[in-house]
Amino acid sequence: MSLPTLSTVQLDAGVAAALDRIPAASGVGQILGPDSKSLSIGKPANLRRWAATNLGAGKPPKKGARPPTDLSPVAIAVRFASTTSAFGQRLAFERLMARYVPLSARRDLKPPAYLHLDAGERFPRVTVRSLGPDPAALFGPFRDRRAADRAVQALHKAFLLRPCDYTFEPDPALPLGLGCLYAQVRSCVAPCLERVREDEYRALAERAATLLANVEGRGEDVSPWLPPWVCAIGGSRGLVVEKGSAGLELYPVLEQTVLDGESVTTEVDSLDAAVHRFRWEVGQPRPEDALWLSAWLHTPKRSGVYLAVPDEPTVDFVESVRAAVSP
User: Is 139 helix (H, G, I), strand (E, B) or coil?
Assistant: First the structure.
């Protein structure tokens, strides 16, 4: 896991002297206490102002507002790194946080939800699951279980897959099927009652899985319940494209892991070469990016763009990248 080189400013000469050495730029910052204990980590728009606020040298709070905690009595140093884009700042912040705060203690991150649909099962069905160690047959991420449940309902309407979790042997006179409301109102193709053959039912599930897996070719009618970044997690490739102060920043994403070591800053005219240079390999230990990356994807006013990357990036894909960042 890479992290921008952090500059360190000691506080032994006083807070005012230290603040003069901290840039008034966006980035990530950390305040250290005795024995290099982390006291605070932030991703401010202004590093100098953030440090001043946490070290008791900021502007007085508004009347009636609670003043921020003054860490200057115990702080010994400030570490910081400037960043050149909003996504680059978020990535640097998450890499720094991962060294000090376990995911289980992150109250600011909510786990996303995923749909599971294995078209190879005998009678496939769609269920909502959390992300496990095996991403096979998982599709997402969705913001939460409620959003995933809406997608399940929409899939049931579009493909009439079975919503039940029963195990059965198909039979036209099966009491289980005859008494099922979904079969009675025909909101399910009812494989339990042999209204469709097993292979026909699996073909129907395959069509649903194809819709979930492939971003390309989706109609606008699915956009209310199927976000454009939802795809098959296993083997998925994505690209975060962000306009930075130093150029166009590209961050490859493999199975919801940001390959920050492969990120590159380039010009629009050099996009083709930049897109084809990525090595789609995750190092060890593997960063756990799924939670914060989902939060970033679902941010309404984010500046960066996320694009699904085909196995062999074509000229059309490069043009789609160029179009995504065009004014």
Answer: strand
Q: Which long-range contacts (CB under 8 A, 24 or more apart) does 166-171 make?
A: 166/192, 168/123, 168/192, 170/194, 170/198
Element at 94 (helix H, strand E): helix 86-100
Give residue 57's domain range: 7-82
pLDDT digits (tens, 9 = 90+) for 101-135: 999 999 999 999 999 999 999 999 999 999 988 89
User: pLDDT tens digits for 147-195?
Assistant: 999 999 999 999 999 999 999 999 999 999 999 999 999 999 999 999 9
**Is 78:22 a contact under the CB 8 Å cutoff?**
yes
Tell me whether residue 96 is in a domain. no
Distance (Å, whole) CA 113 – CA 130: 5
* Same-domain pairing of 214 and 256: no
Q: Are residues 259 and 309 in the same domain?
A: yes
Rounded to two decimals, the pTM is: 0.91
